[in-house]
């Protein structure tokens, strides 16, 4: 069964595509105002994660952030990179280098959550 593309899904997808950093459900709620309710945003974001459209990042502040995927699909979600949160401007970004982490024989990774906080190149000057 094909998934229906609703106005709410399209608004959230457009917002994620246009964002320069990862966004939380709260940030999307502020941006979309009353057009989409909180529960719908959260449900759509989780659906987008399952479909390989976005990946979920657990920040050092305990909140989840969502970043648009570039080369992922439902069956091939690859995000072995660090995420960076600027303590001044608050932007959260995916750092470009994918990591290969050697694990003991027999281990198979499913999720990687590497997070760094500090000052981005714009704020550290």
UniProtKB/TrEMBL annotation:
Its cofactor is Zn(2+). One of its GO terms (biological process) is regulation of secondary metabolite biosynthetic process. Zn(2+) binds at residues 86, 89, 120, 123. Binds 1 zinc ion per subunit. InterPro entries: FUR, WH-like_DNA-bd_sf, WH_DNA-bd_sf. Keywords: Metal-binding, Zinc. One of its GO terms (molecular function) is zinc ion binding. PANTHER family: FERRIC UPTAKE REGULATION PROTEIN, ZINC UPTAKE REGULATION PROTEIN. This is Fe2+/Zn2+ uptake regulation protein.
